[in-house]
Amino acid sequence: MIQMIINTLASAAIVAPAAVAFTLVFTLFRYANFAVGGFVTVGAFAAWTINVPLGCPLWVAGLGAMVVCASAFALSDRLVFRALRGRSGGTLLLVSIALSFVLENIMRFIYGAQMKGFDLPLTGPITIWDVRITRETVAVVSVSLLAILVVGAILILTPIGRALRAVADNPSLASVRGLPVPSVEVFGIAVAGAMLGLSGTLVGVDLSIDPNLNWAVTIPIIAAAIVGGLGSPIGAAAGAILIGAAEELTVAFLAPTYKGAVGFAVIALVLILRPQGLLGDKVDRK
Amino acid sequence: MTLLVLKDLRAGYGASDIVHGVNLELVPGKMIALVGPNGAGKSTLLKSIAGVANVTGGVLELDGKNLIPLQPSGRAQAGAVFMPQERNVFRTLSVSENLAVSAWGCRDIAARRDEVLTLLPTIRDYLRKRAGGLSGGQRQMVGLGMALMSRPRVLLVDEPTAGLSPLLVGEMLDTLRQLAASANLGILIVEQNARAALQRADRALVLVDGRVVRQGDAAALADEPDFGALFFGEAA
């Protein structure tokens, strides 16, 4: 049981930062960006490049991946999504799916299809009361939790965080109140991109890195954000834990082949029982 | 000293003008009411000053500074602050956060908040509440407080009493009247409760089809025998 909780937390820790990014973009622009998995893949390859060919420690690689993803995510908004502001959420969703394929294939073109892994020192697991925890799992969970707390603190306690929430709530009012809406939006996009880069690094610690990561992580990320309640970063983290738990239970009691479908099942259940998600607000459709 | 100057101002949405050549001068401490029938262009005039609607011609200056090239945020920072009729608070933020975020870029947020709470003391009762959960009257008061946080020179108020009970209508208009004097603000107000607004305003402009058809002392205008016809646009 405790082992299952640890496994749940490990898998939630990978998904949670990206789910927070997904919900941030949704609250700011009211569309579902399905390219999140593509950016997580970009983050994973960026971290691998800094860690293995360049020989830097993993924490430097993680920070580098966050910077790369923040820049790439901001660039994608500038080149792709900004021109489409005001279009329906469905149009933007389709464009984001196309972007996801583009990102995946750019990674395939640059790095090939071979699986890659970080250069990590070999360490044995820590065993406490017959429960085995790897040092990597401890690191992944701690870093993910810290990142979510930092983003939560930025949103609640800082002027730029308040401005971000105000712009997400009502951009035209924010504009007439003197807030620099475009700059605040760019800040939100950069924070979301950095979280996607972090998820990419964490996923590379747990799994091997290859371009197919894209769709393997996209569904759990979006499921976590929807289950947690779109618009709520804390809800996204809670949703990630719920999706992680559902996946672990599936592996334990059904078969690992059903793991991919569990995200869809949980989304369907939540949408029937609590359409706004665990901690979300009802949102206006655009 | 004139604060806000409009000369032959034309404005609208897209290619078509809704406001056709309005002239107006607003001085500190005074309140001007814009009255007229629905669709006369009153709100469009306010929005064009705030940068929400397009100015297509004429002069628009605040303290001698041309506002036309500025975005809405730039006009707010210059001192022309707009209070929309609806959705004038950030629903998901607390009242306190709504006030703080409205003083973007200012270092003395606490001092400004104290000033606003002195001018509008009722806000103290619900400072920690989420703005989305407030009543209509409380929301309008918070919207007004938010507008004051940036220490505006000119307040552009669009139907502040919409949806309020008759008792609150008078209270809100009295508050605005007092604010104009105590904060030395110029206030330009669009109000459907025309008689109530004219009782409090210093001057008034009657707009019909985007043109000023009558202007003058607010109280005198309200006493004119054809005021009702003017208000409903029959004397254009």
Automatic annotation (TrEMBL), chain A:
Any single Pfam family the record assigns to this protein: BPD_transp_2
Presence of keyword Transport: yes
Ranges annotated as spanning the membrane: 31-50, 57-76, 88-106, 138-164, 184-205, 217-243, 249-273
Keywords attached to this entry: Amino-acid transport, Cell inner membrane, Cell membrane, Membrane, Transmembrane, Transmembrane helix, Transport
Top-level taxon in the UniProt lineage: Bacteria
Subcellular location: Cell membrane
Membrane topology type: Multi-pass membrane protein
Family: Belongs to the binding-protein-dependent transport system permease family. LivHM subfamily.
The name this protein goes by in its record: Branched-chain amino acid ABC transporter permease
Organism per entry: Bradyrhizobium diversitatis
TrEMBL record, chain B:
One Pfam family hit: ABC_tran
Domain spans labelled ABC transporter: 4-234
InterPro entries linked: AAA+_ATPase, ABC_transporter-like_ATP-bd, ABC_transporter-like_CS, BCAA_Transport_ATP-bd_LivF, P-loop_NTPase
GO MF annotation terms: ATP binding
Coiled coil: none
Keyword line: Amino-acid transport, ATP-binding, Nucleotide-binding, Transport
Role description: Involved in beta-(1-->2)glucan export. Transmembrane domains (TMD) form a pore in the inner membrane and the ATP-binding domain (NBD) is responsible for energy generation.
Family to which the UniProt record says this protein belongs: Belongs to the ABC transporter superfamily.
Protein name: ABC transporter ATP-binding protein
Species of origin: Bradyrhizobium diversitatis
